[in-house]
Amino acid sequence: MRSLLRADVKCYLCGFVSGQIEGQIGDRMTLQNFRAAPNTDGPRLTAKGRICCTRCGGGVFLDEWERVRPLEVVTFGPAKRGRPRKHPLQAAS
Ligand SMILES: [Zn+2]
Q: Which single residue of 27, 51, 75, 89 has CA 20 to 30 Å from 63?
């Protein structure tokens, strides 16, 4: 079974991590294996279609590859916002 590896996509200029690449060591950065960081607006591309820094548009490089543990499955559900109160505040009489 081929193990999945993951590497941070980091900016040369500001060090911001725009996301991660999933695959094997030596893989190229493509939109297919790129996973945008949850706090970004998704992949930002240069005019030539290369992935660049989401924050400043600078060039990016791959940080160290890390093994992805199969058991480490963490799902982040969308934050619930504007949930109505169960007991609305009563106006003081
Ligand atoms: Zn940057």
A: 75
